[in-house]
Specification:
Elements: E1 3-6, E2 12-18, H1 23-38, H2 51-63, E3 70-76, E4 79-88, E5 97-105, H3 114-128, E6 133-139, H4 143-150, E7 154-164, E8 170-179
Parallel strand pairs: 5-6
Antiparallel strand pairs: 1-2, 2-3, 3-4, 4-5, 6-8, 7-8
């Protein structure tokens, strides 16, 4: 069910949980992923990412999603502007936790509170799924790191040269966790 959010500039943002990979959805998410990589975001892909590869990755993500996986999409009047995922731990002794992955906001919508709204809705969805511990990682000194701190995430530490940025430069990765109450 879509959740309406109001951003700072009074443009409505709708956030919804999606479970099926329609062509329109995959195309919109592919555009967001391509834009994120082109702008240097550390989201696991290198600058040579093609639309075909990005689209196939999205189709595979939906096809392999576990029942407790949450994929959120943020839309404005012009289409998809952001996304984030919640991926449940598979280990039997860790069913209370999930990883946050692939928070991305298209450059045309940055600075409008989309990432914050996505993360707030993701925490709501996590409570509904009975998760009590969330984990995530991001590149050090990124806008995402500042966002997570502002949302009350606890910084655990950092690992130098953990991953590559899209341009091939090294990214020091910062790890965070957040405890939440189950619904």
């Amino acid at each position: 069910m879509p959740v309406a959010r109001q951003d700072r500039e009074a443009h409505p943002i709708t956030i919804e949980r999606v479970t099926r990979a329609t062509d329109d959805l995959v195309n919109g998410l592919t555009a967001v992923l391509m834009d994120a990589v082109a702008s240097g975001a550390g989201v696991s892909f290198m600058s040579d990412l093609t639309s075909d590869t990005a689209g196939e990755w999205w189709r595979q993500t939906f096809a392999e999603a576990a029942p407790r996986t949450v994929i959120l999409v943020a839309r404005d009047a012009d289409g998809i502007v952001g996304t984030v995922q919640l991926q449940a731990a598979w280990q039997p002794n860790q069913l209370h936790r999930a990883d946050v992955a692939k928070l991305m906001v298209h450059r045309r919508a940055r600075g409008r509170g989309v990432a914050r709204a996505l993360m707030q809705e993701l925490e709501h969805q996590a409570r509904q799924q009975q998760f009590t511990l969330l984990l995530l990682d991001t590149c050090k000194d990124s806008a995402a790191e500042r966002l997570y701190v502002s949302l009350g995430w606890i910084r655990v530490g950092e690992v130098p040269d953990f991953a590559l940025n899209p341009d091939g430069s090294w990214c020091t990765t910062v790890f965070f966790y957040k405890r939440i109450d189950a619904a």
